[in-house]
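Reading a protein record of the kind used here takes only a little practice. The record below shows the convention in full:
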Amino acid sequence: MNIFNKVIVVLILICIICVSLISIVNVFVEYFKWSDLALKVFNPENDVYPFIAALALLMVFAISIFIILLEFYRRGTRVAIISSSKAGNAMVTLETVAMQIKNAVIKIDGLEEIKVKIVPKATGVIINMNAKLNEDMDIPEKMQEIINKATSIVSDKLGIKVIKTNLTIVGLVAGRKEKEAKKKEEEEKAVEVVQEEAEDVSEIEDDDR
């Protein structure tokens, strides 16, 4: 069930809950009768035009059919065609292409995080990437390296024609090595503190003896 269906179902359930609560309260207070209410809405002699009631019911019917169709409709798997295949139709899913790119470029020194989206076209694919780089790196040079690596993986390894490769830097952060070094330093300090506390406890015990 997709998000739209869930929203519609939740709204329907809320309406049912409200109607149920009103019905329960009406059993004791007898504020109105359902039969009278129905006659006021659907009776042609009242101010409500006959076709309004029919239109309302038609809308409910159409929405119900639409929800059912959405529930049973499944989008086909999006794929990219391998241009180097001559004997038949060879295709790779876009998720696989994106994963291959991510696994390859994440190994590049200075790249901290990468998100890849593949846009299929009739003659090939467009690679869109959002990345976070180490702030100490040569940004233009590193961007070109990432673009070349991603293009090479798709065109050479997967045999898919690359129309264009777009790379957007969404952030500059401290490098992984710096983070690891800082974490290691903090751990060493914590160990030293524990050792000092243990020595202090040992000295106090010796003095007591």
User: Anything to note?
Assistant: Residues 110 and 137 are 6 Å apart (CA to CA). The chain has two domains: 3-72, 79-173. Residues 3-72 form one domain. The first strand starts at residue 79 and ends at 81.
